[in-house]
Amino acid sequence: MNRILKYSFLTGLIFIIACNKKESPVKERILLPVVNTIHPVKGNIQENKQLNGQIIYLNKTIITAPLTGYVTKVNTLIGNYVNKGDLIFKIQTSENKALQNTKILKSIDYGKTSLYANAYGYINSLNVTDPGVYITEGTAMATIVNDKDLIVQVNSPYEYSKLIAKNKNIHIELPDKSILAASYYKTINLVDPVSQTQKIYFKLKKHKILPENLNVIVDFTAEAKNNSVLLPKEAVLTNETEDQFWVMKIINDSLAVRVPVKKGLEENGKTEILKPILTGKDLIIIKGAYGLSDSTKVKVEQP
């Protein structure tokens, strides 16, 4: 009986060993990261700067009251265009008003005065809008602005002053997104002690009437280069602190290697690569490079 049990045990053990030897290991299928690539190109690129600006009028004429009294006539409205010599106001002194019905003033009319526009332009402010208002001598009653002297003013960092002064490519963006061409006019030789900015004036190349104090954006070219090596912005990777940049370059058909780069100008989704020198034959990953380690095998998908 013992012999039979021993024989059965040995037979089973041999069978298990034989079965294990016959089993072949299943190789796991390795899936390679799929990437899209692009070749560097050469082209022109420029970097633009933007500053906040404001519409102002340089030439303003303030109409002031030459005497104390009552306004008897207001002959204009705010926003009206006036010609030089147009009647704007009439003023009557208190004394004249008190004596206006007496015999004294029948032959002599004094204590009344008329104010005329002494410049061409628009009524930009009107402090007295209705007759009957009592005013004192020297009161500012209205302001006439010459619409031909419209300028755009920016408070610019000092380091931009020389760059702006010789810039030929200046555009003004209005709040409604319309764009107007402008040219450099002058720089005020004074720096704000707190902000360290300088007032710079621009003039529109084509005359347009705009409201004073309107906020605008002044866009100008800071730097321009020709025949630069360019890559799409998404092909250039960076770290969290954005002080290191690199691209993933394909070598030997399927190996992605990390190549540190030095960036130059950026414009409309394009990035200039200063170093190293890339050529049109290089294959750079544009999609799928995020998170790839150096020297990673990849599958290049044809566009």
Indicate the topology:
Elements: H1 2-22, E1 34-38, E2 41-57, E3 60-64, E4 69-74, E5 81-82, E6 87-92, H2 94-99, H3 104-107, E7 112-116, E8 121-126, E9 134-135, E10 140-145, E11 150-157, H4 161-165, E12 170-173, E13 179-191, E14 197-204, E15 215-232, E16 237-238, E17 245-251, E18 255-260, E19 262-267, E20 270-275, E21 284-287, E22 296-297, E23 299-300
Parallel strand pairs: 1-23
Antiparallel strand pairs: 1-21, 2-11, 2-15, 3-10, 4-6, 4-9, 5-8, 6-7, 8-10, 11-14, 12-13, 12-15, 13-14, 15-20, 16-17, 17-18, 18-22, 19-20
Task: Give a short summary of the structure.
The protein has four helices and 23 strands. It is mainly β and 303 residues long. A hairpin with a 6-residue loop joins strand 16 (237-238) and strand 17 (245-251).
